């Protein structure tokens, strides 16, 4: 029988708790902001162009990651994840403040929204690898999968509750107040983060060589078969799986035929599923987490996406399944990447993880947003589903072939 442990055990670590609580506040504000920006984008254009514009926003938020994630990994290994993480949160707080101002003055244009998305993409390029590396250095390795699961938990609680709060805010207080809430949500983390002690294996100034350090990180990843297989699955999910949620505003409006409240319920269902998934992953021991076959989770995500495309009205249920599988998938791949990476290389491997995760997902969303404009958003979801299901059978065929070859 599989061993199942306390899913909140990482909170026994004082430093992790100091980070986890204000990060929860920040993530709640972020999901309110994400919902409101998406809804602003949907209503800036006609229904037949909305999906493409949302996809463009997602692409512009993710494209800087392609260029800057490898850079961020080197800088994290040079200066430490805490310092880089602090600057990303400060930049996002300023971005939210600008958004609040433009909306309050009723002068927000599509170009301004796209520009702010690019700036968010730049900060996001440094946020994911610095955050994950930071968590990996304030908890013991035995608690790392649990700490990552708890972060997924608060992320998905925010995703579950944030859209509903956003709908309430718009109805009773207006868009401006929602963006102000997000700007203020960064304050607790910005205050607490510098006080958390951190022991990190920095690359000493005398040994720093940017190109050589960048090359070393890439070579380490390419030569490690475990990382290559993990990153292949991550690429498939990020490119073909993430558009499910990132295009959901357009899907909810044109296929489900619902409003912001209905969209909030769909995303709330996805957040609830992710919360349950985080509880499951958080209760597993490290060796159990990293041994799970992630291609089965991709199959489950593909199947739920296919069901949604065929029967849009069951998006409320399928989103729950999708969210649970997604959280376990990310916990597995994230934990495995950090476990096989030495301390002085972790920033660079996690930056490549972020490059795939946050670079492929907006690219896929942009492409399938445009496809949705041409053939309909439901048909775009069908294509996404078939690719993920096909990957599962391809992966299993390759594995079975290797087993027979070894015998």
UniProtKB/TrEMBL annotation:
InterPro entries: MFS_dom, MFS_trans_sf, TM_effector
Record field: transmembrane: 52-72, 84-104, 111-128, 148-170, 177-196, 227-248, 260-284, 296-318, 352-371, 377-394
Superkingdom: Bacteria
UniProt keywords, alphabetically: Cell membrane, Membrane, Transmembrane, Transmembrane helix, Transport
Coiled-coil portions: none
Membrane topology category: Multi-pass membrane protein
Subcellular location: Cell membrane
Alphabetized PROSITE patterns for the sequence: MFS
Alphabetized CDD domains for the sequence: MFS_MefA_like
A GO cellular component annotation in the UniProt record: plasma membrane
Molecular function in Gene Ontology: transmembrane transporter activity
Keyword Cell membrane in annotation: yes
Major facilitator superfamily (MFS) profile domain ranges (all copies): 1-397
Main location: membrane
Protein name as it appears in the record: Major facilitator superfamily MFS_1
Source organism of this protein record: Pseudothermotoga lettingae (strain ATCC BAA-301 / DSM 14385 / NBRC 107922 / TMO)
